[in-house]
Amino acid sequence: MNLKEKTRTLPASPVEVLRLAAADLRKCGEDERFIYDPQEWHAPSKNNRTGQEICYVCVAGAVMAQTLGARGVVDIWATDYADPHIVARLEMLDAVRQGSFATAVKMSDGTETDVQVARVRLQMRDIQSESFEELADEIERRAGVLEAFLKSRGLAP
Prior knowledge:
It is built from six helices and three strands. The protein is mostly helical and 157 residues long. A hairpin with a 6-residue loop joins strand 2 (42-46) and strand 3 (53-57). The N and C termini lie far apart (38 Å).
């Protein structure tokens, strides 16, 4: 599936993408139709018991639903977008959720040395919450950690 016609844009800065994801997670948390599932990107479904439309989303899936306008679209993955800029940012969100900052550092024009230092200094565990608010808080915290790291390496203003 090619989502070119639905595609909007995402910030160039990984830190700003993380902050956008936190805001989109909060929006999903305000809508009972969204359920967090780190195994799904964006997977609309129907509650068999109530018949209500629901949508399973991961961190990147929240951005797909809220910012990129994927609501109502069938099960999609990051790679369903035509724009490689968007695919890269969605995949970076998934990596940061899992605790890896290497992709984010590369996006910030980090050298291989910067990436290796990030792998050592920025090791974090996968986020284990199902609460959109807790997820948003942790993604914001990780945005701050990434921003401080990038500044310390001369990769951010």
